[in-house]
Sequence to fold (258 residues):
Amino acid sequence: MASFSARGLILKRYPLGEKDKLCILFTHTYGKLRVSARGARQSSSKLAGVSEPMVILDAHLHQGTTFQVLAQAEAIETFPVIKTDIVLISYAMFLLELVDRLTEDEDPAPDLYELLVRTLYLLGASRDPASLVLAAQWHVLHLTGYMPRIRECCMCDTRLDATAGLPFYAAHRGGVICHRCADGYRGETLAFTRPLQSVLHAIGDLMTPADWSSFTVEEALKPMLWQLVRSHMKAMTDRDLKTMVFLDALRFDAIGKV
Ligand SMILES: [Zn+2]
Fold:
């Protein structure tokens, strides 16, 4: 494929050399591509504005020696409403980082692409962006195969609804463990309370982004869900999500707002 066109969303960009950018372009058709945008760090470049995160573009690409080369690009969506609100930007960047972290290059994932783009469109008009993003990220985990196991104990396989004691979420086990296994478990855990179980099962039952845009997570449960997602991601990928650290700081500054 010497030369081809693709529609995609820029997840991230890095400086490359003195004047270029390396963009992580998540395309509908080909999955994630590493694309160099030559000269794009010069403000006079036609590629300067389109080669930024959270821009959907129609790209014309050539096969380069190391990366694909962005020859031409037309911005299709830049999400201006999101970009004027620090809270919305933070949520959007969290979703972009999550997708970047959980996908491999050149592994087509059209369903994940659709989910991400539709969620970004809904985010701009959402009255409860935290609930929307919490629901969306759960489905990102599902589509990428990183969903934690929450219905059976990860250690003894007992169905959790068959046990009376309080189960615990154990990130390094990849999900929940029953109260019996938790007794001797020395790793980090988080109480997997009934309300937490119910809200995650409810989120799992939501079928489309339109469904989760009208879904509301009770305020008291949001910090616990964020904590669960954060520990899960850290255990799965060995690193904290950078955007999650920022979201935490934001919540600390604006309790009740986020
Ligand atoms: Zn168990």
Summary: Residues 153, 155-156, 158, 177-178, 180-181 surround zinc ion (CB under 6 Å). DSSP finds nine helices and eight strands in the chain.
